[in-house]
Hints:
The complex is a heterotetramer of chains A (275), B (337), C (146) and D (320).
Chain A: E1 8-19, E2 22-29, E3 43-48, E4 52-57, E5 68-73, H1 77-84, E6 90-97, E7 112-117, H2 121-133, E8 141-147, H3 156-163, E9 170-176, E10 186-187, H4 190-197, E11 204-208, H5 211-224, E12 231-234, E13 250-251, E14 254-255, E15 262-264, H6 265-268
Parallel strand pairs in A: 7-8, 7-11, 8-9, 9-10, 11-12
Antiparallel strand pairs in A: 1-2, 1-6, 2-5, 3-4, 3-6, 12-15, 13-14
Helix pairs in contact in A: 4-5
Chain C: E1 11-16, H1 20-29, E2 38-43, H2 51-59, E3 64-69, H3 80-97, E4 105-109, H4 115-132, H5 141-144
Parallel strand pairs in C: 1-2, 1-3, 3-4
Helix pairs in contact in C: 1-4
Chain D: H1 2-11, E1 16-22, E2 29-34, E3 42-43, H2 53-59, E4 66-70, H3 72-83, E5 92-97, H4 105-110, E6 116-122, E7 125-130, E8 133-137, H5 146-149, E9 161-163, H6 176-183, H7 186-197, H8 205-209, H9 235-248, H10 258-262, H11 270-284, H12 311-314
Parallel strand pairs in D: 1-4, 4-5, 5-9
Antiparallel strand pairs in D: 1-2, 1-3, 6-7, 7-8
Amino acid sequence: MTNNLIPTLGVVTDIRVDTPDIKTFRVEKIGGGKCFEHEPGQCAMLSIPGVGEAMFSITSSPTVADHQEFSIKKCGCLTSWLHLMEPGQQITIRGPYGKPFPVDTELKGKDLLFIAGGVGLAPLHSVINYCLAKRENYGKIDVVYGSRSKDDLLTIDEIQNEWMKPENDLDVHLTIDRAQEGWDGHVGFVPNYVTELGFDPNKCVLVCGPPIMIKFVLQALDGLGFQKDQIYTTLELRMKCGIGKCGRCNIGDKYVCKDGPVFRFDQLDELPNEY
Amino acid sequence: MKKISLNALGALFAKIASTMKLYAPIEKAGQVDFYEWNESEKVRLDVLKTVKSAKDVFFPQVEDLLKFRVEGKSIEMNEAPKCEDDFVVFGVRGCDARSFELLDRVFLVDPRDEFYAARRAHGIIVTLACGAPEESCFCTNFGIDPANPGGDASAWIVGEELYIEPHTERGAALIADLEDADASSVEAAKKEISAIAERLPFANLDLTGFDGEHLMEKFDDPAWERLSKACLGCGTCTFVCPTCQCYDIRDFDTGHGVTRYRCWDSCMYSDFTLMAAENSRHTQLQRFRQRFMHKLVYFPSNNDGLYSCVGCGRCVAKCPQNLNIVKVIKALGGKKA
Amino acid sequence: MPMKENWTPTIVAFCCNWCSYAGADLAGSSRLSYPANVKIIRIPCSCRLNPMFVLRAFQRGADGVILCGCHPGDCHYTTGNYYARRRMTLLFSMLDYLGIDRRRTRVEWVSAAEGAKFSATMNDFARTIAELGENVRLGDLRCKQE
Amino acid sequence: MIERARELLASGEVNRVLAWEKGENDFDRTPAVFTADNVDSLVYDGLCGPNLSKYLVGEMEKEGKILVFLKPCDSYSYNQLATEHRIDLEKVVPIAVGCRGKIDVEKLRAKGIKGILSVTEDGDKLLVKTLYGDAVVENRKEVLLDKCLACKGKEHVVECEVIGESEDTTEGDKFGIVAKLEAMTPDERFAFWRGELSKCIRCNACRNVCPACSCVKCVFDNPNTGVANKAAADDFEENMFHIIRAFHVAGRCTDCGECSRVCPQHIPLHLLNRKFIKDINEIYGGYQAGAEIGQRHPLENFDKGDCEPSVVHVRGGARK
């Protein structure tokens, strides 16, 4: 019988520097292979003994056979430690936690629109790659991705070299907040860009980013005629146990770790605004 | 039904303690709590409520989860041992006995908590009827009968005798050697308890409207502002509560390894939901509301209408500024339904 | 708790950067000996010594804690050690009040020129602590198990 | 009092009133902020133990003036908070109210009175109604809060309007118990404090109620201090929390006794604070925190002729 609070050991086999404050960590079981199977949008608890444990969304697609990746922004105590790590470091990992995006049910066969801001691409990254791997299951796919500057765009190499391949039939719309030398793409905030691009309101939308961006993206989508039951997001709150028992990550009677982190906006509307 | 003279209880305790651990309400430095029994301890079955509830026995305030040893880049991990031996908790009141069932609904549902599950499987509960309920008691609102407290065996104090009725085999085995008794005096005692229970000041609270259906209505009630005004944000109510189960997991660096332990946490604390970047409940009003919403709305919404309160009244008696769940129920309950 | 075999006391000496740390340095360069189990922690001024530091030294296995600073009147920051003096007086008194042996805590003023005093003080303090035995009243069991 | 509060609210001099209201039990008294709408539910009697001054810190962010009622001992906390600039005197209208000592319901319970429904004062007598019949306490002094037995006197130290008469309820020497502890052997003292402190459940009520503990973020809540924790995992952490709590308020503690009043485990926390006060008085000369606004307290002050810390080795207290 497995004990849910006891993690397994993992080893960080590769660390990629994505932006000045985001690194992507590749985690494998000791001896190689994935620590566990997961679905797109799920999370895992990573920890360094003596520092702490925290929940991170899994960035890599379930279709990647031999490892999992986590894109992590340096913002607190544990993440600062993670950023100091070198490859070969062992960490502890437990999961997967939470409900995934409904990629094989509600989203199947639909046109998809992904909207991400900053490190908010991390959880969607997993979904996008999953959709690309099972491309035939989905209609048109668009990605709107923005960040503060061109240096803060996550996995830009992958976006340009893999996602944008013509055979993927995937449109990526990049934007940065302020004009910058060496950037000839779009400049402006994500919500405004979404309005400018003017999407067809029969798509399903998956959105993740800072709360303020989400708020305005919702307004923009509303303006385009989208309904709340077409829009999904993934939330983050303080978590300790990951199994709906420690009592901190609830929004109303739902626990983000167990009933989330993926919520549809019509579900969120029925819950208190405490996130 | 068996009986034993109160004077002879020490011998019964000694006999139980010779084969397994025994927890009972014991007085230390003037206060009574559940501690492990030994011959030098002073058992206080006459005290109605221990300061902390009996949940400590199954869900201790601090418990180790695992130990790490870090060397260079590698980590060695050892899981803390789980409870493997039977033990007895003696003198649990009806409210606390019910609280274990509520905790089960949190810790034993999938994915279950193995540390708690192990203790639950090994614990034998001997309950004790409440001879003299206090003004703060309101357990009857939640369908708890202080005269029939349940558990593996129940006990009643009548005069100088303790009567015990086993409900399970494990309960019966504990008291097999005691002399048989006639139940009639216990029946009289039960009637007396029930009569007092009906006269309790908080005996008839109106709980209509506290359910998942009215979640947003209760959440948005303007009364929270006034109710939470005096809240100090201390954790007294949560730590004396038999059903509060929130916990924290922390690491302690001992200098030669790392111990990961779990300890009680309180939703009243400002850092309860604090993350690196933000805090989802940043005012005391939100935290105060969370505690009562959880007990009266969120929990029943997820657990077939069962409230996460057993009416033990500890928070009523212990809150430094006399805020409590009864006040909340009265302020928000009943109306509109 | 039974005394461990081969137990030697662990002593934490908080030394101010300007006088006492230099005093310790002088003791070393003058080849005056002081016990090897004295762990010196350099602090910018004796008044940097947060009472928490003293407690945490005990938590993590110190058997005695000593603070060394500039002589009163000679503080690099003019008055730091006067404040430290009041604080430590009250803290030590409180520890005593809680039943923790008052001989486990000490303050000595050691100037940069007093290498000999530093060495003598440490030797004397180490001897006192050795006589008192292991600190069991203000330690953290988790740090002791091994 | 209600009259005066209503007058000040009506004149617009204040827009809210900080006082006490009745709680769910007849004898419960809860601090509350009133406006003109509900000021009639304001209560002041022998059960109003809570010290209101700390609530002023939170009220300072709001617009307009607030009226606060201060008992004589609360006025010390008020001054101390004003000294520390935690309350803005421009935004507060204090009114002093008389106090004859406040009743401790826990002490009634300790007398074996169970199922208390109400407590009524009748001169020096207390009439107690319970589920199990009525009881009478002949002299209310038997059941006063511990803090009232070390009363700081009937004078208010804030210059303001006074309503009602006060009484000094001191019983004996307030440092008596401290002195008794000091006279014990270290082993006895250690056993005493271990017994008391091991009851601590780390609910932080003592800290949160304390008018001197007004840090925005406590060291014990700040993960970066390395000592933050939610529960005392062993004896050391219990000791550390209580030593540091008392030390952080040393010199600023007015001995208002709230820490002991709120402790759910009845740990005599004020004996730690009072030890510091006694030491300060004996070593650095008599000092009462909060006696006036703008005082410099003994730990932010010094004298070149101060004694050395080794004084601890020679003064007071039984040797082993």
